[in-house]
Amino acid sequence: MAQKNKVIAVIVNYNKPFDTLRCIKAILQNSQKTSTIIVVDNASTDNSVSILQNHHQIELIINQQNKGGSGGFNTGIEAALKYNPDYVWLLDDDAYPDSHYLHFALATFSQYPDTGIVGAQLLDIDNHNIIVELGANICWDHIGTIPIGRRKQRISQHYTLQVDYVPACCMLISRQVLETVGGLKDFYFLHWDDMEFGYRVNQEGFSVRVNTRAIAFHKCYDKAPSPTIRYYDNRNSLRFYLFDSRHVGMKLRVIIYDIIWTILTRPFSKKPLEVYILYKALADLLRGKMGKLDSTAFWCYRISHSNHFILSSHLPLSERIVMANNLKQQQHSFEVFVRDAAEESKLGSQFPVRQINHGLMAHIKLFFSNLFNRKILISTGYYNKLDILFIRRAYYDGQNLIKKPLSVSIFFDIILNSLKEGENK
Questions:
Q1: Is residue 384 part of a domain?
Q2: pTM, two decimal places
Q3: Considering its fold, how many domains does the chain have in total?
Q4: pLDDT digit string, tens, across residues 287-330
């Protein structure tokens, strides 16, 4: 006898094999069984493939290149549709479902026949009493979204919400939707692909819903996004509002306020890095360059042995020690700036150091000595007087060296603060 609801699960893995194994286990333990579990390895650079190949209860597809979240899911969806399923269940590698998710998600389709996608009451993976998201709505008065229930207490009552979209980390999609509107758009790569998909599904007359009893778990979105993630958010949101949505008023608003106004006020921005990221996102969008960001994003420095790194005295001492040790181990040329004799005594036996004098002539000498060379000053995430003395400035975000573009506004603030310091002495 054929299974009443044939469900194919699709997980996209990228360098998280043990998270993926946890997700597979949760699917297998679900009260409603799936017909097949497809795992798409998105060109992982670790030992994911060798680990997942040993799992006999999955179908493993190995992408030869990283296609991003949207491309990875589409690879899995294409494979899933060959099984002629009733539903395709998308899951991120770092998410996993509650044991009754599928039962309540399928019940939602039965209760509301116009439903095309069912999401989850997404709970914090580290605290099951906190909501990560109950789906979200798209803003039409400014660029952005309105997540529902974020950081609120878990909902115990049973009700169903109708929303603009649900995160792709756990969504159950009817075959009718996939046959009518297609899958996600590959060229989004990361971020806004699920927003656009939900919007397109709604536009075609289907509904996107969240059942509070259909529960899944995922990390909270509390970590500050990297410049690369902010690039995808900028580029893909602009793509959505300008080209994929049908909201004419929002298109005009984005062009006038989010593009033209930002370009005109760029020199006076106090967050020049954000403007530079927007420039790159807009330039790539207008050139039709979607998909994966190239590896030479101009806000990141590529660490090279031809560079000489200087650790600013404005960095906390503990950070200078950690970074100096890393540079030393990797045999890079570097120098550590210290504030006083005590710091010099503490660091001088381990690293090349130089004590910084804060007089005017010392700053002038420092400026000209670093004007025509490849020295990169690694300073804090905020500007200080020392930063303007180097052509190449960066701060370390824990993963990358991020360029520190200067604006007229920041330069003016540095001068004013310098004058105030002089008056106070």
A1: yes
A2: 0.89
A3: 3
A4: 999 999 987 788 888 888 888 999 999 999 999 999 999 999 98
